[in-house]
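$ ./design --mode recover --in tokens.txt
reading tokens...
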């Protein structure tokens, strides 16, 4: 098992510095993300193999969601899970993202329809 990694306050370092095992990645994803963390997540170069992004325990603002929706390195995501913490506008930006066109967006456990 890998060591526990704190994502808060070290966004860029965790996502861009050295090798990252699955436990480190999981710790980075589920830790408290805010706008800065969401933007760092979107810019992270180690996440090309990430398949599921669960931000249901985080509050991402428009800036972070826009960064995630336009991040080409996250195009391999199969699912993004969001909840009421993300605004309706934020959810819509994920659903209408061309980068995430093949990604299933779930809101409160229900698959959101694409237009």
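writing sequence...
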């Amino acid at each position: 098992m890998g060591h526990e990694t704190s994502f808060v306050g070290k966004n860029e370092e965790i996502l861009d510095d050295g090798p990252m095992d699955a436990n480190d990645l999981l710790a980075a994803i589920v830790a408290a993300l805010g706008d800065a963390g969401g933007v760092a997540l979107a810019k992270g170069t180690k996440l090309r193999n990430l398949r599921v992004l669960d931000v249901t325990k985080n509050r991402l603002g428009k800036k972070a969601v826009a960064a995630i929706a336009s991040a080409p390195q996250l195009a391999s995501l199969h699912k993004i899970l969001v909840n009421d913490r993300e605004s309706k506008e934020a959810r819509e930006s994920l659903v209408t993202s061309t980068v995430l066109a093949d990604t299933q967006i779930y809101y409160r456990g229900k698959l959101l329809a694409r237009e």
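exit 0
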